[in-house]
């Protein structure tokens, strides 16, 4: 059965539009022009952009610039989309015309058609509500798209922060559980002084908590919008006090302290706040990469690696080696983090690629940012659920490594000096005998006394009496 079309007309002429589509001619042209990634717009971004249109209609109704029945129809259509209806009508590829004009018109057309049908009109006729004259009143792609990107990022941030908090809390719980699990520290991947598994896990929790704080610090920047700047930041064709009134409407719609930027032109030209968010995401991804690498090392084995921890088995690890189980969740998290770092680099390049009054790279910049936030949120959550909550510890193996480490010679520094302690370490490395046995043989310390010293050094840290005065 052939697909039915209606014919619409714009400034370039006539063009076919799918008969039952709520979008219109400019959207249909963009669909044909940009068959690039096959990825439609991010849903948070769709909702954010529709909220801007809703806010504009409310402000224009209050100002007497938009007839109440038209404003109400636009607002009702926007509410339907915000509630989840008709979101499949946003169909333009993420790689599209610069600045996002295609997406802006996609939103304008869908809202206009929904409003017109509600008022007794027909799809594609744009009477009495016109996409440009009414839905886009007092706006431009140039101020709505960057505002929508910021609003979408604000919508995603709580989810990312919650995921980071859950992982940090899980590491903190492990830290408390393993506070007295003595193990060998390792620096340069070589034996070092003793520590505890709890201290390692506690450090992971702390850095994740600090990363969350860095993410939160960006929120005030994202709440400053350039909406109301219109085409170039001058506020052309806007009603009096539109920027502030629209910001107030958006604050009510989002629950965020949205406010108009002191310099609308700057907030339209610059992607600085989005880059700051990407910087914080990159910092989180770098830490997660490091932590993932550590977890894979600690779980390596089961016979020829560290094997100090055992990660829950979630799937067979090999198509050829029976019984093999791999740290697949942390491998996945590594891959996600590397991809996020790539998105951050793309964002950095696009941030500096704007010219004069506008950054035309916004569609791809927003997409890269949204992907980074969503991917990290999902990856962190699933790793926490599947790898941390049922993590097991081989305390005997940890203790064995701790008491056979060459690094234990360091504990003798304050009693026999660095040089003599170094000789003990060298002898242990040459002979393969534990430091404790050499210490006992030389009459420096009894075995039991040395073992207690190792435990104290790992759990308490500083053994220098003067440090505890």
Stated plainly, the CATH topology of the largest domain is called Fumarase C, Chain A, domain 2
Order of helices and strands: EEHHHHHHEEHHEHEHHEHHEHHHHH
The CATH homologous superfamily of the largest domain is called Fumarase/aspartase (Central domain)
Helix content: 55-70%
Major sheet size, sense and barrel closure: 2 strands, antiparallel
Overall number of strands: 8
Quaternary status: single chain
**Strand line-up of the largest beta sheet:** 1-2
Structural class of the secondary structure composition?
A: mainly alpha
Q: What is the class of the largest domain in the CATH system? A: Mainly Alpha
CATH architecture of the largest domain: Up-down Bundle
3D structure, described in words:
The structure is a single chain. The chain folds into 3 domains: 5-137, Fumarase C, Chain B, domain 1 (Orthogonal Bundle); 155-229 and 261-390, Fumarase/aspartase (Central domain) (Fumarase C, Chain A, domain 2), CATH 1.20.200.10; 405-468, Ribonucleotide Reductase Protein R1, domain 1 (Orthogonal Bundle). The chain is mainly α. Helix content is 58%, strand content 7%. The strands form 4 sheets. The chain has a two-stranded antiparallel ribbon with strand order 1-2. A two-stranded antiparallel ribbon has the order 3-4. The relative contact order is 0.10. The protein has helices spanning 25-33, 43-62, 68-82, 101-118, 131-135, 141-177, 197-216, 219-222, 242-254, 264-269, 272-298, 328-351, 362-388, 395-404, 413-416, 418-431, 435-441, 447-460; strands spanning 5-10, 13-18, 182-187, 190-196, 224-225, 259-260, 309-310, 392-393. Helix 12 runs antiparallel to helix 13.
